[in-house]
Design a protein that fits this description.
By secondary structure, the chain is an alpha/beta fold. The chain is built from 16 helices and four strands. A hairpin with a 2-residue loop joins β3 and β4. The termini are far apart.
């Protein structure tokens, strides 16, 4: 396997959607959720586009956000557009209006957004170089394939500098899984934090996105084991359950958190894994995470011995085993 299994690049269709998102109410919602400074390029993007805050392309994206469509889904619209024509290739998904491609195309030309990208070409080039250095030794597929089977996919990482956030988005684009990830949030007038300033954090972010996309596909492809597993109530905090009433969302957070902790330990050592577990506990009050890791390690060991041919076989056992492990710890 190559030392650099993740391709770092900038696709202008994704960058264009990021710029449109910067003009919706999303940045303000992010500030309400977690107040933070805004780095230079994000401010310049909004200043450059300020006269087109109510452009039809922006309003169409705002409607999708208000309909609670996930950012992962919204950003996947990039895969339906050609470039540089910005026209739909073979139609648009049912959740998007037929007019949106034309609106996006008009937004690009009207705002002369390419001029801003050219002015800030150095910032984007540095971000690509920094992310490339950070991800050079990151091998997500080594662990993910043990859960999801052979994965003939290309992993792509795109820096996101268009709006300040700590959330990454991810989606499938043909045979690629794309992670669109921001740098660590900067404060004041500082430029974005370099992606290689905290290499484990950048790798953790990328791994989490790839795991999320692949898990979503895997669960859709195995409805039987999922239906059986859903009969088990997951041992998670009531506040988190209320915020995420859907069982799939609950399971996804648990799985991705456990897999990420194991990945960090395998890649960077026990210290990084423990730091991540502590951070996740603070974010979600997840006292259950050590038990999740224990059950996942049990699966990996049993799979190595040939007991399970696929993770789908283990999913119902995973949920039961997690409850039992938690109950034993309370004795």
């Amino acid at each position: 396997m190559s030392d650099s299994p993740i391709t770092v690049r900038v696709d202008d269709r994704i960058r264009l959607l990021s710029a449109i998102l910067a003009m919706t109410t999303w940045p303000e919602q992010e500030q309400d959720r977690q107040p933070h400074g805004v780095h230079v390029h994000a401010r310049m993007t909004r200043a450059h586009l300020t006269e087109d805050e109510y452009h039809p392309a922006v309003l169409s994206m705002q409607e999708l956000l208000e309909a609670s469509l996930p950012l992962d889904t919204i950003f996947s619209f990039a895969s339906y557009l050609n470039w540089p024509g910005v026209r739909a290739r073979g139609g648009v998904p049912k959740w998007a209006s037929r007019e949106w491609p034309a609106q996006i195309r008009d937004f690009l030309h009207r705002t002369r957004l390419r001029n801003l990208w050219e002015e800030d070409a150095g910032i984007w080039s540095r971000a690509i170089e920094e992310a490339g250095r950070a991800l050079a030794k990151c091998q997500p597929l080594d662990l993910l394939s043990k859960f999801f089977g052979p994965l003939p996919v290309e992993l792509v990482f795109q820096p996101n500098l268009c709006y300040p956030t700590d959330q990454s988005v991810g989606f499938r684009w043909d045979r690629s899984i794309v992670a669109v990830s921001p740098p660590r949030i900067a404060w004041g007038n500082n430029p974005p934090w370099p992606y290689d300033d905290d290499i484990p954090a950048t790798c953790q972010d990328a791994f989490g996105v790839y795991a999320r996309v692949l898990l979503r596909e895997y669960l859709r492809g195995h409805p039987g084991p999922v239906e059986q597993a859903q009969r088990v109530r997951l041992p998670i905090p009531n506040v988190f359950r209320a915020q995420n009433p859907d069982w799939i969302d609950q399971f996804s957070v648990i799985f991705i958190s456990g897999a990420t902790a194991i990945f960090l330990e395998q890649t960077f050592g026990e210290g990084e894994s423990k730091s991540y577990v502590m951070m996740t506990h603070k974010a979600h009050n997840f006292k259950v995470l050590p038990s999740v890791i224990e059950v996942m390690r049990h699966y990996l060991a049993e799979q190595e011995r040939g007991k399970y041919s696929s993770f789908a076989e283990f999913i119902p056992t995973f949920c039961k085993g997690l409850r039992v492990t938690e109950q034993l710890k309370k004795l």
